[in-house]
Amino acid sequence: MQGLTIEEIQQLLEERLKGNVSQQVYEEVRNKLLNIAGKIVITRETVERFIEHIIERYHSSLIEPGEAVGTIAAQSLGEPSTQMTLRVFHYAGVREYNVTLGLPRLIEIVDARKKPETPIMEIYLVDEYRRSEEKAREIARKIESTYLENVTRELDIDLIEGVVRVRLDPEMLEDKGLSVEVIIKKLKELDVGEVSRGDDPYEVIISLREEYLDYSKLEKLRSKLLGLHLKGIKEIRKVIIQKRGDEYVIISEGSNLEEIMRIEGVDWRRVYTNNIHEIERVLGIEAARQAIIKEIKEILDDQGLDVDIRHIMLLADMMTWTGHVRQIGRMGVAGEKPSVLARATFEMTVQKLLESAATSEEDRLYGVTENIIIGQTIPVGTGMVQIYMTPSLLKTEAGNKGDRNE
Question: What's the fold here for domain 146-231?
Fold first, then answer.
């Protein structure tokens, strides 16, 4: 059997398929077909039937004018979410981190929470650093927050003598890349008393000022000392290094996109955080929209739920079209509808109606909810079509016809 050449297949696709489907679908079909063309024999009849089937499937998947896409999207996302698990999963096979997934994470996204319960960052490195574990470790040390409690073996407060003895852990100091001199300098900046070195090379003594010699302030003083920030980016609580393929990637618990992107050696084009509001603040609303789509798609895929991405895109559009991320709720999308009646039906009915009456708001009845309330045809499907008739013209035409018949 004589098969078509790659050039003939390309020509056939250009004549029959191009223009009948979107450019994206056309390119995907062309690439896949040309990819298998070199491996198996493809006849003209096979390609023609294939093209017909694609055009038919493509047109059947297009939304009809007047389709209630919002309702379908709500159902398509709402129903699978009832099958989701409530568990918290380990992150990317790493036991050290727990990350919120499933239904709690979906609720977190659609509620547009200011901070995720488990903020996580994926920090990719530039070419010079990404293949060296030592260089990746160097950057990890630079960004991980280190506090005095992380490098302290023992902290004693003696209020009778008015001194604090801090015994440091030499192993932890080496691991975190810190010296005793750096810690003394930081303690001096804290300004709680005179700081000096003890008899032991890893002991620091603080002679407290008068105002701190008070038993009621003891716990507060201990917390202040142990919580002293020594180095790193404050929000980054913990980091681990993972090998993915031939490169090293830093995974951090905690998120600070702006500061991380400024670190030398970090590939700022590929850095990712699961904090949507941070993405919006640093990279803008389009990046936040893309992050919402990515996060929701990954949640559903993890649970093995197949939801068309167009429903997720519509949800992300509704959350971001005003220029900032809004929640799906009375403080966001549902509560900011232009219709008074639609807002009143969602929550706090009396309050919404009183507020609208006080400000003389007008409801043009453009939406579905408000038309149902007053018993009109809803503007969906055939309800969107309006016929305008001019009776005087019809009367004139009817008169003209009568004259001609006579």
Answer: Gyrase A; domain 2 (3.30.1360)
